[in-house]
Amino acid sequence: MSARLRLFVSDARHSPGRVLGVAITCLVTAVVVGVAALLFTTLAGWEQPERAGLGSVSAVVVATTPDDQVAGALPADALTRVRTVPGAQQAVEYRDRTVSIVRGDALLPDVDGRTTRAWNFSAAVADGYQLDRGAAPAGNELVVDAATAAEAGIDVGASVPTLSAAGVVSRRVSGILRASESTAAGGPVLLLADQELAAMAGSTLPHAILVPGAAGQDAAELRAALSAGLPGLRVLAPEDYKTGDTGVTENKIGGGINLLSLLLFALITSAATVLGTTMSLWTSQRTPQLTVLRALGVSSGRLRRLVLGDAALIAVPVALLGALLGALPGAKLARAALVGADILPTDTPAVSLGGAAVGALALAVLLTVSLTLVASLSGARQAGRLDAAAALNSGSGAVKLRRRFSRLLIGLVLLALGAAPMLVNGGGGALVMGAAATVSVLILVPALTVLSPWLTPLLTPLAGLVARLDRGVGHLIASNLRMSTLRTAGLAGPALLAVGLSTALLSAPKTLDAGVVEQTTQRVQAAHLVVPAGSAGLPLALPAGYTGTAARLLDTTVQPAAETSQGGPTGIAAAGADGAALAGLLDLGPAAGGLTALTGDTFAASKDIAKQHKWSIGEQVPLLLDDGTRHDLRLVTAYDNDLGFAGVLLPMDLAVAHSPDPMLTMILLGGDPAAWPVTPGATVVDRGTYLDALDPRESADSLAPLIIALVLAGYAVLSLANSAGLAQADRGPENRTLRLLGGRKDQLLRLVAGEALAAAAIGILLGLLVGIGGLMPLARATGRALPVLDVMGVVIIPLICGLAAVIPAVLAARPLRPVTERAEGGTP
Amino acid sequence: MSQTLVEAPPALRLRDVTKRYGRAADATAVLSGVSAAFPAGTFTALMGPSGSGKTTMLMCAAGLTRPTTGTVEVAGQRIDNLSDKQLTRLRRDRVGFVFQHFNLIDSLTAVENVYLPARLAGRPALRGRAVELLNLVGLGERLKHRPAQLSGGQRQRVAIARALLTEPVVLFADEPTGALDQEAGREVLDLLRRLATEQGTTIVMVTHDAAAAAAADRVLLLFDGVLSAELHGASAEEIAHRVVSHR
Ligand SMILES: Nc1ncnc2c1ncn2[C@@H]1O[C@H](COP(=O)(O)OP(=O)(O)OP(=O)(O)O)[C@@H](O)[C@H]1O
Ligand SMILES: [Mg+2]
Q1: Can you give the residue range of the structural domain that contains A633?
Q2: Integer Cα distance of A714 and A735 in angstroms
Q3: CA of B198 to nearest chain A CA: how many angstroms apart?
């Protein structure tokens, strides 16, 4: 065994607690980062079944929006233009619309719970689908795919009631589509005649142009030719085109990946700070030993390498161990938990050790080791700079830790980064600012954690004052807190991180939810509402039997045509509405008036959105509607109460005419609900029931921040325990002195516990201040004086942090041990 | 000075004190049958080779460790059979300690360090006394200095002032000059000498330094756990000769 290894082993054997603390921190970091990385690769590498069912065409031509999304529809002349490209003469228009088969009073549910969609017949033919029996649809006839036909018990010649934007229409089944691979995976369920589909209410423009492949023709070449010949349009391979709504599954995967990204970010910042404090405490405790080495003639460079080497000696095997043994079972557990919590879909592939997974694990190990090494760098530099004479002369042995300039710099840079979202969104409305402030908090909290050595002194006098309530040792607690800034910060930092982040993460959605519920309650005045039952929307027209007042609402989107997007999508959630009928049914605040002016080429916007886009009332604003067409609309009014509601209101006729697949989301009823005829796919609810059922956020959405908050809290607990234990370990001589001076056991206990608690309390207080302070803009945006606080974030996690600091400190100090027999020793 | 105190019990008395570490019967005795009396107001130096049991004897005398057999009395009261709680009170009220390493609390100022035992005992009235004691040890100008801002000798004097705060019956010092240079050591010894003469403090000091021992009223020599000689008013040369010749 080399001398250097022997030194390490003897050090580890002499004070196993220190090495154990560092090792546990590394281990947990490796496991947690490994788990996140494994899940990440599992989700990212998940080959989703093709959803469009457009297997056989060579190219799909679509239009794009200014923010580079696929537009809902193409210009009317698109087909003609496409057909001029050589090899694309067989191109056809593609449309799909929501059409459901009615069974009894309900809709026949689709296989995977998605809205049943109908394609135009020639698009299906172009894509190679074939009839099993019967004939192509003519007039309002219908072709049904084999599985659905069997499910509904229908065959050629049958008459089937269907629900679409036009209401319930009885259609004769003209043919049955042959079952194929792709029908099971997102292909068409229903087919209608091209004319029938194109003539349905809503935008008449095609959704896409399909270019079928010809024998001997290279699809990629064709796509290249199309791209070159069709400026302003986009040419996609069929597998890149997704029809209709994004599936629930897809949203979940995206949500899962977002969750993991946020988690990884939070984890890495936590790991960096936690490892940083642990490593520098470790080095500081080893200074007596290192000083002796320095005095024995070891060069400062070697000393530096020694400290780094020791860090690597712990980090490398432990990180490998964690990644190899802990990450895989951990990831499997995490997957099961996330599926159980409905955050990930049930068919999420199992976590296995493929090539990508091994790479992810290697990355996790690398990350852990490099974080540890970077964290121990400052300790190593410190060791290299040790002045043997000064240290040996200082009597107490341990050299005082100094706050590092580099740490200040990193903290300040993070701070600036945290302020960026606020500055970028400076001109935005209250809600935008509120959201930006919440995002800021998520960066500001780690920044303040890095800066904790400079922040905690601001609060130590306060903590000292409280501590002085204890007449015996309070004074000593106050002095210790003040004098050992880094030790105090080592405990305050993790508490600040956990409490600040969990307060912001957990209380932000609560605040928003409360605002949405409050404003919806204010907004919805109608005594009864008609809402969809099932996955389709409501037909556009009011049923003939109903004569009372009613206001229809239809969800759509608009996009400011004149604005360039700076990255993200600029689409605004909009609604088509019967402006004149809204009075008394939907209260959008006093400023909005009755919205009677919302007709023709006009629109209304929420004050927030108007402010964000700098629109003033009476101004003509160029807007792109859902089908990609551009309209100059006049802003007639701006409204309040927009939380959980559309940011832009369009006249109903305009919204319908330019939606590729319009169906109503809700009808507000003013008259007698009993007069509403029973309609399939719709239910009438009273206002109370509607508001009670209002769950503005999916449960999975609020579970995700809870998971992140808990992981962070767990990490903070670990780090607190570590720091508290390490910080106490070098207090042996001091504690012995106190006992020699006649200090009672309970006094010593109070000293140790009080100091740990006070330091953690400083962090908790800072965390609450930043967390709650950062939510104030969001609270104001939702019309409240204060944010709605989550008990977990502001009570339970702070409590856990306090305990995590006190218990290990008391255990490590072990003041209950009788005064040691060798009391005169000066070094631990 | 010892004549006037003949009838009063000595400040400290050890009777037949034996100390073994470990339970094993074959454990060699570190102290075997040590008996000694320390009259109030006397300054005693304890000398002997390294490992002879000096520190152990001090620990037994101060109630920091229990003798295996034998009794220890402080001001006539037995302390070898006290409970842990009673020992805590003894340390707080009746005895003081000064060690080679100064054992000051780094985060407290000089005056706060001196005042600390009073705080722990909940006796705030002694605040003025802390300042007085620092004046006494010549550190009246450095009340607000922290240990890191004091020299080794100054730190040791703060430790002595702290040990004196509760007016202990006996002041124990284990190599109080061991970590100091000659001049600082001299200052500390002068102070201890003065305390015994002027304040009537009973002092028991372990030392390796014959010159330091010469400052005491008498010197006890300990060899292999046995008190082998007692010198009165011996010079440093004599003491050094006795220590070496015994070997
Ligand atoms: N806790 C203990 N357990 C076992 N043996 C001990 C213990 N403390 C001291 N000893 C032994 O007792 C003997 C006397 O130790 P002591 O510390 O009293 O010597 P000393 O005279 O003070 O020596 P020095 O001048 O080197 O300080 C030594 O041999 C030592 O090894
Ligand atoms: Mg000794």
Answers
A1: 537-680
A2: 30
A3: 24
